[in-house]
Design brief:
disordered C terminus; 4 helices; 3-stranded antiparallel beta sheet; alpha+beta; elongated; about 230 residues; 8-stranded antiparallel beta sheet
């Protein structure tokens, strides 16, 4: 039993959405290998990357309604006021926005940032600019979820990136979700914006690495503290 548990912990699960892509990569690799040993190795490396990209690890999410959890793995690229996308119906006033950018090596499974009821899901076509750019929030293809949480309305917006061409969302309007629960996936390289209501205090800084389903992005009811400046 201990051996089986060790094996399960060693091999990270692969999300089912990745199976067709992994199969395609593997077939192409075999075809390339027929002509060249070098191409076989190139294909094998790309296939390994594809498997790695679609990993879906288990995460331990803090059970606390006062916390806002990162919806994605990646780097925090923005923390500050911004107007949410119009289609979400949240009005024209600024809300606190925290952006997490995922590169092609990040885990791309997206998770709910808070517990609550999903009251709205809106998809909008758009461009495929670098997701790190601030204007990607309004110009890139995106899919937004509005969640009524115990602390107010929270929105999570999946944003396609430079090479991302497909946003997947399997959540449903009217359904309940838990913080850290999987709701979608983006292929390949992208960003997730979280819009927070008044009373949410950011707990991350730009440049910080976030872990989806685990890292605390913000806290409700907490005291705001000045950022610490480190001199090296």
């Amino acid at each position: 039993m201990q051996l089986l548990d060790t094996i399960k912990k060693t091999f990270v699960p692969i999300h089912r959405e990745g199976y067709p892509f992994i199969a395609i990569f593997a077939v192409v690799t075999l075809a390339m290998g027929y002509f060249s040993g070098f191409l076989l190795w190139v294909g094998a490396i790309l296939t390994a990357w594809c498997i790695y990209f679609f990993r879906d690890p288990e995460r331990v999410t803090p059970v606390d309604d006062s916390l806002v959890i990162s919806p994605a793995d990646g780097v925090v690229t923005a923390v500050g006021p911004a107007v949410p996308p119009q289609e979400l119906g949240l009005g024209g006033a600024e809300m606190t926005r925290i952006s997490v950018f995922m590169d092609v090596f990040s885990c791309h499974v997206n998770r709910a940032p808070v517990r609550g009821r999903i009251t709205r899901i809106e998809h909008r076509p758009g461009r495929f600019m670098n997701a790190e750019l601030d204007k990607a929030s309004s110009e890139n293809e995106r899919n937004g979820l509005v969640i009524e949480s115990p602390n107010g309305t929270v929105a999570a917006v999946q944003i396609a990136g430079l090479v991302a061409r497909r946003i997947l969302c399997w959540a449903e309007t009217g359904s309940d979700t838990l913080a850290g629960e999987r709701f979608g996936l983006i292929r390949f390289g992208s960003r997730v914006d979280v819009y927070l209501p008044e009373g949410a205090v950011p707990r991350v800084a730009i440049g910080q690495t976030a872990v989806g389903g685990e890292t605390v992005l913000a806290e409700f009811g907490g005291k705001e503290t000045a950022p610490v400046v480190r001199v090296s």
